[in-house]
Amino acid sequence: MRFDLTVLLPHLDALLAGVLLTAEVCALGIVGAFALGTGLGLAATTHGWPGRLARFYVDVFRNVPFVVQVFFLYYGLPEVGVYIDAFWTGVMALTLVGGAYASDVVRSGILAIEPGVVEAARVSGLSRLSIFRRIVLPIALRTALQPLGSVFVNLVLSSSILSMITLDEVTGAARGVAAETYRPFEVYAFLLVAYAGLTYAVSLGVGALHRRLNRHLVAGGRA
């Protein structure tokens, strides 16, 4: 069989629309996972019921297959009167599972902070909220950002499962084109490139943000 990408030209609009839809659902899922993971990571460092609840949440969502979570949200919830369309089901599923993994990274970043730094902030009279917002969170993010990048990349890869709930993201679009053209090699070669591009974009974004957050350290080292 001759490799011929021109067979994809009539279907390029559908494939690119799938790439765009994947980018949209992943972008929202990543933002949601970061916000949820930050809250859970902070709660997990505390004692009492907030810490226990956060750790229980993480254990549940890290030990249940992602496809089962997606099916529960899309097919299970309507049985109790909760209806969510495929797009927002995807966003919610990525947020929930991503938040569980991100929370461990954020928690590790918080625990890595020297206790003396927080104590000095308390002695200076800062409130707990100010200490968290101005000191704990910025320092923890500098430590956790690159590991968080791996979590976000995995969310992009996991989004391929969303094609199983009728969401025409790039995997779903590719399956449709492959069935129509009978040229799976070219179609899935496009899919390989599409996911490589999406994950590379996430890595670039995380790397740029990491450099921005640590620019004062680089400047200090040069000085």
From TrEMBL:
UniProt KW keywords: Amino-acid transport, Cell membrane, Membrane, Transmembrane, Transmembrane helix, Transport
Molecular function in Gene Ontology: transmembrane transporter activity
GO CC annotation: ATP-binding cassette (ABC) transporter complex
Positions of the ABC transmembrane type-1 domain: 19-203
Family matches, as Gene3D superfamilies: MetI-like
Classification via Pfam families: BPD_transp_1
Major location (coarse): membrane
Membrane disposition: Multi-pass membrane protein
Subcellular location: Cell inner membrane; Cell membrane
Keyword Transmembrane belongs to the record: yes
Family: Belongs to the binding-protein-dependent transport system permease family. HisMQ subfamily.
Main function: Part of the binding-protein-dependent transport system for glutamine; probably responsible for the translocation of the substrate across the membrane.
NCBIfam families (alphabetical): HEQRo_perm_3TM (TIGR01726)
Name of the protein in question: His/Glu/Gln/Arg/opine family amino acid ABC transporter permease subunit
Species assigned in the record: Nitrospirillum iridis
